[in-house]
Amino acid sequence: MKQKILVAREVFPEALERLRQHFEVEDNQADAILGVAGLKARLADKAGVLTAATDPMTAEVIAAAPSLKAVCNFAVGYNNIDLAACTRAGVMATNTPGVLDDTTADLAWALLMASARRLPAAERWLRNGEWKSWQFIQWLGSDVHHATLGILGMGRIGQTVARRALGFDMKVIYHNRSRLPADKEAACRASFVDKETLLRESDFLVLLLPYSPESHHTIGAPELALMKPAAHLINVARGGIVDDEALISALRQHRLAGAGLDVFEGEPKFNPGFLELDNVALTPHIGSSSRATRMAMAMTAADNLIAALSGRRPPNLLNPEVL
Fold it and tell me: Do 156 and 98 touch, CB atoms closer than 8 A?
C-alpha cells in the first residue's frame, strides 16, 4: 500500500505525476490557503507533505500529524517550519537550495535597475498621458556603473548577485556572519566589511540574509540613518528583515533615494504607505518566479520527499540530527 502525502499548494502536473508514481497523493490544485486548521485536518493520516512558504508547519500542526515523517518545502527559506518541533517529533525537513539562485539574482538586479532609473514612476507618468515634451533635466536617476554595490548576506544568491556586478564595473562590498574563503571573494571581486561600513558606503544595498527572530528588523531606522541619501535599498530576501514603516518614512522624506522590494512584512498584506511613494519599485514576492526555476523547485521538493519516505537521506535535509 502506498504511503499518503499532501501537496499543500498548487504545483505543476508533472510534479504531481512524479509523486503519484510513489505515493497516494492528496493535492490542492485549487490552491486554497489551508492555514493551521486546514493543515491539521489534512495531515492527520499523512506520512509526508510538500509545503510552500505560506504553509505554517507549527508545533501544533506537527503534533496533530502522528504519522508524519517528512516536511519538504518548495522554497529555499524555511521560516514557516518549526524546525525544532520537527526534530523533536522525528520528522525530516528539507528545502530547495541552489535551483533558484540565478533567477532570484536576476530579480534583484531588475529591482535595482528599476529603482536606479525610476522606471515605475516614469512608466506611470507616460501611461497617464503626462509626457508632453522632452526635457533635458527630467527623470534624472542614479548611475549603476562604477557605483558601490553592498550585499548583506553573502550566501549562494549573494555571490550570484555580486558576480553580475562585474559587467557594471562596480565596487562590491559585503557583510556576512562569516567571511568568505579567499577564492570565493576573488571570484566575486568582493571585499568584506563591517556592517556599519556596508551601510555607510553602499550606493545600492541588496539584502539576502535569511529571516529568523535574530534577523527581524535588521534594517530599521538607525540603520537607514547611516545610509547615503542617494542610496537605494533592495530586498529580495524575506519580509520582516526590514522595518517597513521606518523605510517608508525614509523614502517619504527623501533620506533614501529609492528602494526595490519583492518582500514585505505580513505579506500578502503590506503597508499601504508604499503605494503613496514614487521612489519605490514593488513586486509581489516573485524572486524565483520563472517557469523553469519553479519547476526545478517542485521537482527538487518531490525528490526530497521520495528519498525521505523511501528510507534514504534526502538531498537537502535541514535537520540531520533527526536521523
Answer: yes
Instruction: Report how far residue 24's alpha carbon sits from residue 7's, in angstroms, rounded to the nearest whole number.
Output: 11
Half-sphere exposure of 229 (CA within 13 A, CB side): 4
| CATH class as words, domain 101-282 | alpha beta
Q: What grid cell was written down for 69?
A: 515523517
Q: Which among 165, 177, 168 is positioned nearest to 206, based on CA atoms?
A: 165
Q: What is the mean pLDDT of residues 246-255?
A: 98
Which residues are identified as catalytic?
A: 238, 267, 285
Q: Is residue 154 a contact partner of residue 162, using CB atoms and an 8 Å limit?
A: yes
CATH superfamily of 4-99+291-322: NAD(P)-binding Rossmann-like Domain (3.40.50.720)
pLDDT, one tens digit per residue, over 168-197 is 999 999 999 999 999 999 999 999 999 999
Q: What is the reported pLDDT for 77?
A: 87
* Strands of the chain, DSSP E: 4-7, 24-26, 48-51, 70-73, 92-94, 148-152, 171-175, 190-192, 204-207, 232-235, 258-261, 280-282
The residue ranges of every structural domain in the chain are 4-99+291-322, 101-282
HSE of 323, CA atoms in CB hemisphere, 13 A? 12
Strands 70-73 and 48-51 come out as parallel
47 near 69, Cβ under 8 Å? yes
Gap between the Cα atoms of 28 and 154, Å rounded: 35
Q: Minimal CA–CA distance to 192: which of 177, 208, 210?
A: 177
Residue 296 has, within 13 A of its CA and on its CB side, a CA count of 15
**Is the Cβ–Cβ distance between 194 and 150 less than 8 Å?**
no
Q: Which tops the pLDDT comparison, 118 or 213?
A: 118
Q: What is the DSSP string of 156-185?
A: HHHHHHHHHGGGGT-EEEEE-SSPPPHHHH
